[in-house]
Amino acid sequence: MSYKVSVIVPIFNGEKLIVSCLDSIWNQTIESIEILCINDGSSDQTMNVLEKYKSQHPDTDKKRIKIIDKENGGPSSARNAGIDIAEGIYIGFVDADDYIEPEMYKCLIDIADENELDVVLCNILNCYSDGRECASQEKVPTDQLLNRENILRMICPTLMGEDVFGGPCNRIYRRTFIEKFHIRMPNDIGYGEDAVFQMQVFDNLERTWFDSHCYYRYIHREGSQSSAKPARFKNTLEPLYVIRREYGRKWSISKQDISTYFVYCTIMDIVNTLKSEIDSDKREYMRYLLHNKNFFEALQLSDIKKDTYTLKIWLLFKLLKYTVKRK
């Protein structure tokens, strides 16, 4: 059977949060839905929770829950496993600690069907532990068709930094589009693999639609920010910079902008690494960084303004730039 949408949920140690997430997907107003729960090598009771949930929500002709239990490989590996077995006309992603509004997939699929679109997005509501809620602010026209020119001018540049367009969850993708261009998440990047996925998507997309409604609720939890992890330069920041540089060349995006964001992220990584107790070999990390060709080239191209980031970031930027000149 071909479902209207396959929703892929990568899960790692999500026993405490996954039920609320699955409830929000199961209770979608769209009738035909496949929920693919990818247990990515969890060491807690996630698998038991999933099996119990499935037993309480038996499959019907129009609804199905499928559980895939695999060795831990990270979110890219889990999402790719879901893509490989998805049977839906469309594919969606929901993170295990988030949830979605009941009408999300019905509304996005209606827009996609009516306009013959391969990708449709909605806005995100950011939900914080202190009770604050705020919609993501995107400088893109909403509730109207966006053509290739709009995509190249307004969306592609945002993929060079940290932005809602880099995430995979607040949107649907036509499965035949994903398969036609062989789009998958890279498994060899520690963080930011979803941004690379989006670069592949928007590089091949002719038209899209951005719905202004906040159907996706992104839950910000303390200690869950990947940006706080130390020593990300070698396995994340540098490969992402190389990939962004290649796409930036294709899309005629300023090298300075790409370099500035890369240098900013690297400075944050330096700060997080040096103050971390987890990474013991900090001297080797700094030696690798300060002899890295990509970082030196980007440092010379970049220009972090004093009023753009914190004073600490600006001062470290100036110090590093001075070090490069001395060498």
Automatic annotation (TrEMBL):
Transferase among the record's keywords? yes
Q: Does the keyword Transferase apply?
A: yes
Q: What is the superkingdom listed in this entry's lineage?
A: Bacteria
Tell me which UniProt keywords the record has, alphabetically.
Glycosyltransferase, Transferase
Task: State the top-level EC class.
Answer: transferase
User: Could you tell me one molecular function GO term of this UniProt entry?
Assistant: glycosyltransferase activity
Q: What is this protein called?
A: Putative glycosyltransferase EpsJ
Q: Which organism is it from?
A: [Clostridium] nexile
